[in-house]
Structure formats: C-alpha cells, structure tokens
Amino acid sequence: MSTTLPPMHAALSVLGTMAGQYLASQAQAAQAQPAAQQPAVGTSHPVPQAAQTNNLCDVCHAKPKYFDGTKTHSSCSKTCAAKMPNRGTTNNPPQKRKSTKPAPQLCDYCHKQPKYNDGTTTHSFCGKTCAKNAKAAGIASAPAKPAKNGCLICGSPKKKGHFCSQTCHSKATKKAPVLLEVPQGHDTFGSVSDQFKASWRHQTSCPTVRRVYKVIGHPTSIAKYEAYRAQVEARGNFAATGRSPGNENRRWHGTTRECLLGDNGNSSLCSSQSCSLCGILRTSYSLSLFGKKTGWGRFGAGIYTSSTSSKSNDYSNNVKPSKLKAVLLNKVVVGRGYKMMQDNTSLTAPPPGYDSVLAEVATGGSLNYDELVCYTENAIRPSYLVMYDA
C-alpha cells in the first residue's frame, strides 16, 4: 500500500534531496583540488613584503585591490579610484619619467651658473648682473638655438653674410670690435675648420678645432679696408676673371696671446698693451710693430700671413697656461702678387705694378712653406679667431 505524504512533507523531502546532492558535489570538488602544501616543521616561508604591498590599493594602501573577475584594478573601490591622479586602470603605479631635458648651458659671461630661462626663452646670461657686465665688456648675446646657417645674433635663417637683417647687423657693429662665437654645426664653423685641416701641411697631426669666433671690426676700419679693395679691383679687374673683388683671399696669422681670450667662450678682449692678439683684434695690424717678435722679415717690412695653417701655428704662443692655442684667419687683398723665391729683407713695398709679394717654396729657395706679404695696413683685416688643441 502506498502512502501519500502531505504537500508540506513532500516539499521538505525534495529540498533535503537537493541539499544532499549539492554537498556531495562540493565534497567531490574538494577531493579533486590538491591540498595546500604546508611548510615543514621548523621552517617558515613568509609572503614577500613586495607582494603584500603590490596587492594593496594604490591610494589608501590598506585594503586589497578590487578584482572584478577578469582583472585586478589599481584601487580597492570607486572612492579610492576617484582620488587617483590619473584615472586609469593600470595594475602598477605610474613610473616616473626620466627627464630628456639637456643639462643647462652655462652663462656666456661667468661660465659658472646656468643660463636664465624665463619659461619661454633661454637667455645668454645667468642673471642681470652678468648681463650688465657683459654689455659693458662688449660681449654680444649668443643665440640659444642657432640655425645651421643662422644669424650669429638671433639664430634666424639668413640668405647670405652672417646676419639675417640690418637690425642684427647694427646690433653687432654697435659693439665693435667684438667677437661672436660661431656654434659648432654652423656652416661657417665647418668652412673655417675645414680650411684649417686642409691647410695643415706639416708632418705633425692636425689638432682639433674647438671654437671659432667671427671678428666684428669697427665700421670705420672695415670701410677703409673695403675702399682699398675697391681701388685694387678697379686696377686689376679681378672679378671679371672669376676671382673675388681685389683678388681677396683668406690667410692665417699666428701671434702671442697674453690672456685667455677664446678659452671656454671668453670673448672679452684684454686691456694689456703687449697682448698682440687682442691688439690685432682691437685695431687690426700695424706696420709700426713690424719685427717686434722676430726682429726681421725675409721680404722686408710687411705684414706676413700664410695659406698654411701649420706654419702660422709655429708663431702662435701662449703666455698663460692653456689647453688651447689661437690663430687668426684673415681677409687679405692680394691684388696682383709678385712671386719671389729668395730673401729680400730691404723691401718696404712690392715691386711697381704689384700689390703684394707671394713668397713661394722652390728648390734651392729659403722657404719651406708659403708666405703672403702685404705692405699696406688697409690690405688686411682679421676675420676669424680659431681656437684649437694646444
């Protein structure tokens, strides 16, 4: 005989059966899961401190990071997430970027403190004091970021010459005589440096050019030079044959440097009356000083230059200790040059009809390297100061 259970008892029976099945399935799952390995007696394996820290909220560092079933977030809750500086979902705290900003350049005057930056422009000096002292000394501000072939005052692109405009040209000439440093990488630096290396003809290795300065002469002095060049051009008509007006050429000259002009960006001429280098840069060459250093000249009382940089290096001397030597690259109006191979110490002018003397190397001659001699002060002006390894 079958016994029919009341509805209430039937429901309880079904629930009991379902509970038993659930507990049985959980027991089977527990048996399938390997037991956690326990540390051996007498040993301990603490959780690394870094692991403990990395699992905590990046904001409060007190509660575990929130796991949504797919990934672990950086914070423990929405409250902490709202407080994060960057509302991201990265698992790791943001890494501090390494600065790619270059080390600050040093002041063009004191060379000790970084140049002042006002937030938009890096100035040439560290402060008002150095800027004022530099202005009094006639030091021009160098461009912070000059173009490859840029203006030596503002760095802006230019078409020809050394300045982009009459404004920048006027700024330079108002401070004349003054030296403007030519940045490495500038076309002018490359041109001067290449000529120095190409014309080093001694057997010794050519030293490295470290700095090049453009010489800005006084307008009156430059005007006299240009007037003389025009006279020579009018007589010789050199431009018509493809040469430069007046047959102008660049030639080297070495002399004595008493100061440290040119070292470490120092562009201030010294006040010593016996510093030959600063004297030439201030007032150009003077025939009255002929023979002061050597006591004589193979081709008489003139101003001597050479196309050979290593020959001029022989005449470059430092009075003060320095890692650099100085030599001048000059503009010289050669005009019609008279070639000579033998000494003539009595000359005070080139032969009639000529503008200069070209002393050349020849078998049986007295010269080992060439010389160019001019006998007129207005035939030559210093154009560049070149600093190279001593």
From TrEMBL:
InterPro entries cross-referenced by the UniProt entry: Poly(ADP-ribose)pol_cat_dom
Ranges where the record places region Disordered: 83-103
MF GO annotations: NAD+ poly-ADP-ribosyltransferase activity
Source species, domain of life: Eukaryota
Domain annotation PARP catalytic: ranges: 223-359
Any Pfam family the entry gives: PARP
SUPFAM superfamilies: ADP-ribosylation
TM region(s), chain numbering: none
Name of the molecule in the record: PARP catalytic domain-containing protein
Lineage, uppermost ranks: Eukaryota, Fungi, Dikarya, Basidiomycota, Agaricomycotina
